[in-house]
Every structure is written in structure tokens, then in C-alpha cells.
Recover the amino acids of this structure.
């Protein structure tokens, strides 16, 4: 499983490969997840192509928000239960949570 240091390493690798365009994509992802209004009638859809680290970066950004005291709730949809379990584990490890987030 990917841990926080791996997420950071992957982020730096993509920054080196794609430059400011990738940084802008991650910032867009952060704004959509953390800053934009969501809720019962609002869903955030992020149109970033496959393989650019949306899942890992989303987990990292959510964990960082938790560490900063953000109490926002997130609904993360995954196709397979193993993906859900990996996401929960990654966020808990990054945010240093004892239980499930």
C-alpha cells in the first residue's frame, strides 16, 4: 500500500515530469475537495485524466485537511471494496488516525 512518503514522492515525480501544469491540476483538485461547496445537491467531479494520481493526491489532501482540523465529510466512491479499504487505510495513516475516518 502507498503511504504518505510514497504519495509525496509520486507528487514530486509528477511535478518533475509535468511541471506547473501538474501543480495546477493538484491545486484544482484541492480546491474542489476542500474549498468548493458540496452536499446533498452538490457533487465535485474532477476531470483529470487517468493515471495522474487523483486517488493518491485526493487521499493526501483529505488527510491534510483532517490534520488541520477540517471537519468536512467526504463521500469517496470506488468501484471495488479493496480500493475503499486502501483509501481508508491511506487516509488514516497520513492523518495518524486511530480509527476509520
Amino acid at each position: 500500500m502507498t503511504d504518505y512518503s510514497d504519495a509525496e514522492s509520486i507528487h514530486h515525480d509528477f511535478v518533475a515530469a509535468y511541471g506547473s501544469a501538474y501543480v495546477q491540476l493538484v491545486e484544482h483538485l484541492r480546491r474542489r475537495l476542500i474549498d468548493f461547496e458540496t452536499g446533498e445537491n452538490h457533487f465535485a467531479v474532477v476531470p483529470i485524466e487517468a493515471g495522474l494520481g487523483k486517488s493518491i493526491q485526493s487521499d493526501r489532501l483529505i488527510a491534510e485537511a483532517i490534520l488541520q482540523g477540517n471537519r468536512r465529510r467526504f463521500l469517496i466512491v470506488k468501484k471495488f471494496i479493496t480500493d475503499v479499504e486502501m483509501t481508508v487505510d491511506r487516509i488514516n495513516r497520513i492523518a495518524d488516525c486511530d480509527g476509520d475516518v
